[in-house]
Amino acid sequence: DTEVTQTPKHLVMGMTNKKSLKCEQHMGHRAMYWYKQKAKKPPELMFVYSYEKLSINESVPSRFSPECPNSSLLNLHLHALQPEDSALYLCASSQRGDRGAGNTIYFGEGSWLTVV
Amino acid sequence: AQTVTQSQPEMSVQEAETVTLSCTYDTSESDYYLFWYKQPPSRQMILVIRQEAYKQQNATENRFSVNFQKAAKSFSLKISDSQLGDAAMYFCAYRINQGGSEKLVFGKGTKLTVNP
User: Fold this and answer.
1) Lowest mean pLDDT among A46-60, A90-104, B84-98
2) Which residues in A have their CB inside 8 Å of a CB on B?
3) For residue A71, what are the contacts with CB-CB under 8 A and spacing of at least 6?
């Protein structure tokens, strides 16, 4: 069973709101990822957590704050976003994320975010 | 820098026919992993096929197969007996190491249309 579950599927928020995107996997994977995807573009990596520690931050603005409470959960806290942050946010996981692992990355269905 | 190039923004194929999607990549590594992902209108990224660079044999998954040419750094996807459900955006991806972790780098994608 390769399932990554994301909630909510759709989110509309104002520029002064604080909201969170949630991601959960029960495959025993130890690496989790957040990707951002704009329309007609490939996904762009935002963050990687490996063994519950932040290992990659692709210079993402601080208005995006990731959190990995445990090995199964990954959150993305959103605050003071801009309209250009509207996009599909994809969560993903893999068995391991460390060098040489080469494990397949499995994606969730994504959360559509609209900032108004 | 590692890059992935998909030179065909759009392709079309008749139902039951065969189509090949192109992908080239640039890397200085000798051991790496390549993937094809499919993203239908539902927007979930679905793994189609994976290839380990150390394996000379081309990967196959039912109607999907790859032509992996390591020296030429080419990784094309062949879809046989195309079905309407194959219509989607297809992304070629390369898994790279960064800061002790691994991440996917995607090509820009090829939009595949399947005509009945």
Assistant:
1) A90-104
2) 31, 33, 37, 40-43, 45, 48, 50, 55-56, 88, 90, 92, 94, 97-110, 112
3) A28, A29, A30, A51, A52
